[in-house]
Design goal:
The complex is a heterodimer. By secondary structure, chain A is mainly α. Chain A contains four helices and no strands. Chain A has helices at about 5, 15-25, 30-45, 60-90. In chain A, α2 crosses α3. The longest helix of chain A is centred in the middle third of the chain and has 28 residues, at about 60-90. Chain A starts with a helix and ends in a 93-residue tail after the last helix. Chain B is mainly alpha-helical. Chain B is built from eight helices and no strands. The N and C termini of chain B lie far apart (about 70 Å). The relative contact order of chain B is 0.11. Classes of the chains: A mainly alpha, B mainly alpha. At the A-B interface, α2 and α3 of A face α2, α4 and α7 of B.
Chain lengths: ~180, ~190
C-alpha cells in the first residue's frame, strides 16, 4: 500500500485516496506531524521565504523592534527634510526689510457741487455751525466761543421743618381708662 | 507554567490561561498554515482561530500522550488539509459545471458534426475566453487544462503553495464560467 502522506506531494490523489488520507491524518498524530513536516519542506523547496510568526521575528530586534526601527528611520528622514528646508529658507533676502512709503493717493474725483440755499434760519450759533468751505479745503480751526455757564434759577428756599405739636385724639391729661366696676 | 497546570486552569474557565495558550502557540502554528495554504491565503487567520476553538472544546479529552503544541499542530494540519480538500471538490464541481454548460450549447449549434469536431469547437471557444483573462489566470488554466499538469507540478512551476494553486484555480474557473455564460447568452 502506498504511503499516502508522501504520495500527496508527488501527484494528484484520487477521491478514494483523499478520503483514506483524511482518515489517516485524523487518527495518527505521527502521520499528521510527518505531513506537516513534508508540507514545510515542499513549501521551502518552492523557493518561498520561511514564514516567521508574529513574535518570532528574525530581524535585528524582532518584528515589533523592526517596526519601531522603521518608524524611527521615517521620523529621521522627515526631520532631515524639514531641516534641509529650513536651511534653504535662511538665504539672505534681497528685498529690504523696510519698504519705502508708498505715495498716498489723492482724490481724483471732483467734489459734488453743493447747492447753496439761502439760509432762512435764525443766525447760527457756535453749536450749529456748518462748514462753508469745500470738502477738499483743509478745515480751519474754529475760534473758541466762550460758553457762558448756565445759571440755574433761584429756587425758593424749602420750608424748614419746625417741631410742632401734633394733634392728638386724646386729651392732654391722657387716657384714664374705663372704670372697671361699672 | 507547566502544561498540565495550564490545561487545568483553562478547564476551570480561567480566561488569562486561555490567552496565554493562544499567545504561546499561535505564532508557532501560523507558519504551519502558511506552509499549506500560502502567506496570502484569505483563510489563513480563520484556520488559526478554528484551531483554538476546537482545542478549547476538546481540551478535556487531551490525555498528555504528546506535547500540547504537537496536539495543536495536529489539529492545524487537519484543518489545512480539509480546506485544500474542499477546494479540490469545488474545483471538480466547477469542471463538471463547465462541461455541462458548454456541451448542450455547442451541440445545439453543430448537431451533425462529429464528437471530435465538437470538442475542438468547445476548446476553441474556451481558449478564446482564456486569452482575454489576466496573466495569472491564463497561466494556471493553461498548465492545468491544456497541458494536464498535476497540482504539485503547477506549484513547482509557479512557485506558489498548494493551497494557493487550488484557490487561484477555483477563482479563475469561476470567472471563466461566468464569462462563458455571458458569451453564450449574448451569442444565442
Amino acid at each position: 500500500m502506498p504511503d499516502l502522506v508522501e504520495e500527496y506531494f508527488e501527484r494528484d490523489l484520487t477521491l478514494s485516496e483523499w478520503e483514506a488520507l483524511e482518515r489517516q491524518l485524523e487518527s495518527s498524530t505521527e502521520d499528521s506531524s510527518r505531513f506537516a513536516e513534508l508540507a514545510r519542506r515542499f513549501y521551502l523547496d518552492l523557493g518561498l521565504p520561511d514564514p516567521a510568526g508574529p513574535s518570532g521575528g528574525s530581524g535585528l530586534l524582532g518584528n515589533s523592534g523592526g517596526l519601531a526601527m522603521m518608524l524611527a528611520v521615517i521620523g529621521l528622514l522627515i526631520w532631515g527634510a524639514f531641516r534641509l528646508g529650513q536651511t534653504n529658507r535662511e538665504v539672505p533676502n534681497p528685498v529690504p526689510a523696510v519698504a519705502p512709503a508708498l505715495p498716498t493717493e489723492t482724490p481724483t474725483q471732483e467734489p459734488l457741487p453743493v447747492k447753496k440755499v439761502p439760509s432762512v434760519l435764525k443766525p447760527m450759533t457756535a453749536s450749529t455751525d456748518t462748514p462753508t468751505s469745500s470738502p477738499t479745503a483743509t478745515p480751519q480751526p474754529k475760534p473758541a466761543v466762550p460758553v457762558q455757564p448756565r445759571q440755574a434759577p433761584a429756587l425758593p428756599p424749602l420750608p424748614t421743618a419746625t417741631p410742632t405739636s401734633r394733634p392728638s385724639l386724646f386729651p392732654k391729661q391722657g387716657f384714664q381708662g374705663l372704670p372697671l366696676n361699672q | 507554567m507547566d502544561e498540565r497546570e495550564l490545561v487545568k486552569k483553562i478547564l476551570a474557565g480561567d480566561q488569562a490561561a486561555q490567552t496565554l495558550l493562544y499567545e504561546t502557540h499561535a505564532p508557532r502554528l501560523k507558519p504551519v498554515c502558511i506552509h499549506f495554504l500560502g502567506p496570502q491565503d484569505p483563510d489563513l487567520e480563520d484556520v488559526l482561530q478554528e484551531v483554538f476553538l476546537i482545542a478549547f472544546r476538546k481540551l478535556a479529552q487531551f490525555e498528555f500522550r504528546s506535547g500540547l503544541y504537537t496536539w495543536l499542530a495536529h489539529i492545524c494540519v487537519n484543518l489545512c488539509y480539509q480546506r485544500i480538500h474542499k477546494r479540490r471538490k469545488q474545483l471538480a464541481s466547477l469542471e463538471e459545471d463547465l462541461e455541462l454548460m458548454t456541451i448542450p450549447q455547442v451541440q445545439a449549434l453543430e448537431v451533425e458534426k462529429h464528437d471530435a469536431d465538437e470538442k475542438a469547437r468547445k476548446v476553441a471557444f474556451l481558449d478564446r475566453l482564456i486569452r482575454t483573462m489576466g496573466d495569472k489566470c491564463r497561466k494556471i488554466l493553461e498548465l492545468r487544462d491544456r497541458q494536464g499538469e498535476s497540482y504539485v507540478a503547477i506549484c513547482k512551476t509557479l512557485k506558489v503553495p498548494l493551497g494557493t494553486v487550488m484557490s487561484q484555480l477555483a477563482r479563475c474557473r469561476e470567472t471563466l464560467k461566468k464569462m462563458a455564460h455571458s458569451a453564450l447568452g449574448e451569442g444565442l
